[in-house]
Amino acid sequence: MEIIVISGPTASGKTKKAVAFCKERNGEIISCDSRQIYKYLDIGTNKEGIFLQNGLRRIDGVLQHLTDTLNPDQNYSAAKFVKDADLKISEIFEKGKVPVITGGTGLYIKALLYGLDEMPKADKTLRKELKTKSQDELYNILLKSDPGAAEKNKKNPQRLLRALEVNILSGRTIQEHFKSKSPRYNFGHYSISIDNKILYKKINERCKYMIENGMIEETQKVLNMGFDKNCPALSGIGYRHIIQYLEKKISKENLILEFSKDTRHYAKRQNIWFKAQPDVDFMFY
């Protein structure tokens, strides 16, 4: 049996394509999104459909798994995603349906399809020490031993910390833990490729729409629930910009501009990632 993967940059229409495929091939979606896994953050992560229960949503009659399962202060990883996705794949196969992995978190997709080497577990003592350092300090330290991970995660303190922790504990970079292996599944991987001019226009429009339609209030609500502004869920693009706005460090106009710019940069990195992966068929738009 074969699983299907539909990937691509943010705002490229992955979920719409996955829903259409599921209707045609009797499938169910497994979300592969490191942000949609969190509860309470719906607008900024662009969740679709209706939330049912236990990480399950329904989008236009199609079931979607692995959203809304973690509190904003909980950590998530590629290894945890693989474990969760393996379980959902088995359940969907048992129903005689096709699992359709859908999302733009490339590292999770690669780990699911090809596996990953055992990485060191979080070290409480080391992590406590690293958390005393600023984001810039973490970046500068990591830059010396793993410049690729430092640049990729420059604006994400949680991932900077984890990459540095892995490097210190194992003496190896994050990427060195992802060796090329035989596939874990029979799969078809289809990645959406869309003209940058069209994609960036969609991103700009989406970011502005999110800000003007409740994302600021959504962020404030999570903070009011007692979650720290530096918790994993709020470290993502958009939410960290809103926190700056709420702290009166930037204007609303600059919030939208910075949010849009960083999202465009993220989409560019996603495109580069998927083009470098093996066994991918591209769908051009």
TrEMBL record:
Signal peptide: none annotated. The keyword tRNA processing applies. The record marks 105, 127 as: Interaction with substrate tRNA. Its cofactor is Mg(2+). One of its GO terms (molecular function) is ATP binding. SUPFAM superfamilies: P-loop containing nucleoside triphosphate hydrolases. NCBIfam families: miaA (TIGR00174). Monomer. This is tRNA dimethylallyltransferase. It comes from Endomicrobium trichonymphae. The lineage of its organism: Bacteria, Pseudomonadati, Elusimicrobiota, Endomicrobiia, Endomicrobiales. The gene is miaA.
